[in-house]
Amino acid sequence: MTTTPKRPRDPNQLAKLIADIAVGETPKDTRTTTEVRASKAGAKGGPARAKALTPQQRSEIARIAAAARWKKGS
What we know:
Layout: H1 11-23, H2 33-52, H3 55-73
């Protein structure tokens, strides 16, 4: 299953994308540099933060998050 990349807002880039799709030359990774960096940072930051927290701190954070989720539903 092939997915088409996100449509660019710039008309010139859109024209190039349409031409590339017509020819069959779509890029494999259509994520922007910022998206790539963010995914890498999230993969590193979460485990590092969990490792730095004590079990009591993690429990308190989870308790606050659960309360916020229940409050949001009402």
